[in-house]
Amino acid sequence: MVDVLLDIDDQSWYNFSLIGIVAQEPDYRMAWLLNTQLNMNFIRKADLRPAGNAETSVPDRPGYSVFYCRLPFQEPQFRLIGNKTLPQPCIKESDGFDFILQISDAPSTFVEEWVKSLRKLPAIQWCGTLKNISDKSMSLLIFEDHEDTT
Questions:
Q1: Which of 80, 115, 117, 133 is most deeply buried (CB count within 10 A of its CB)?
Q2: Are 82 and 99 in contact (CB under 8 A)?
Q3: What is the pLDDT of residues 91-106, one digit of tens each?
Q4: Does residue 139 sit within a domain?
Q5: Using an 8 Å Cβ cutoff, are 84 and 8 in contact?
Q6: Residue span of the structural domain in which 55 resides
Q7: Could you tell me which residue, 40 or 49, shows the higher pLDDT?
C-alpha cells in the first residue's frame, strides 16, 4: 500500500486571481455593463452557497449571485460574484467590496490589464486585486464544473 502525503503549503490547487469591485449597481446590471462595455458574455448561474455560512444554508434564502463567462478561443474563465447580497461578505477578505471578479487560468499581467480596464468604467467606483487571501477563503471559490454550475 502506498502512502500519499498532502503538502498543505502547496497552493497549486487553485489557479485564479480575485479582483474586488466597488460599484452601486445591482448584480444583473453589473453583468450587463461588463457584457456591453467590455464585450463579455456573462451568463447567470446557480447561486454560490459556501459551506459553513449560516445565511446561505437556508434553501429559501438567496446565496451569492454568480455570473460566468469564458472568452472564445482563450483559456481564461471569469466569474462575477455578487458580494453584497447578504450581511456578511462571501469571503472575509472581500469585506467592503460589492463584487468579486474571479479570473481563472490567466497570468498576473492579464489580471492587471483587467483592473485597468475596469477602472475606466464610470459605474465602477474602485477596484483592485485582492491579496493575502486565506486558503480557507480560496477553497470556498473553487468550482468543480466551470461551465455548467446550474
A1: 80
A2: yes
A3: 887 888 999 999 988 8
A4: no
A5: no
A6: 16-131
A7: 40
Q: Do the domain assignments include residue 94? A: yes
C-alpha cell at 89: 461578505
- The reported pLDDT for the residue numbered 13 is 47
Domain presence at residue 138: no
Number of domains, the chain: 1
Phi, psi of 70 (to 5 degrees): -125, 130
Asked whether the predicted pLDDT for residue 11 surpasses 70, the reply is no
Q: CA–CA separation, 65 vs 49, rounded Å? A: 9
Residue among 50, 70, 47, 75 at smallest CA distance from 139: 50
Res 5: pLDDT: 41
Q: In the numeric block, which cell numbers belong to residue 82?
A: 455578487
pTM to 2 decimal places: 0.80
